[in-house]
Amino acid sequence: MTVYVDDAVHLWRGRRWAHLMADTLDELHAMAQQLDIPRRAFQNKTSGAHYDVPAELRERAIELGATAISRHRDRALVRSVIARAKAQGRGEHP
């Protein structure tokens, strides 16, 4: 099982943001807890189960074992991870 963090590509409020996703919700929430991200920041709407993380936390997530994925180089993997995140957000088991 794996936790993933994509490129910090989204600019919002003057910061770059990335998405933290995982193969399971338990792994996702555990990594968010290690990063001191509050549970209220969890998102599971149309974009799938994830946390938004600022670029500096992206680097910390990688240090803690998250797999860095690139929306530019790892397109098939990113699509697969996002599909699992969406299934988790709908309460399905990927």
TrEMBL record:
<protein>
    <submittedName>
        <fullName>DUF4031 domain-containing protein</fullName>
    </submittedName>
</protein>
<dbReference type="Pfam" id="PF13223">
    <property type="entry name" value="DUF4031"/>
</dbReference>
<dbReference type="InterPro" id="IPR025109">
    <property type="entry name" value="DUF4031"/>
</dbReference>
<feature type="domain" description="DUF4031">
    <location>
        <begin position="3"/>
        <end position="79"/>
    </location>
</feature>
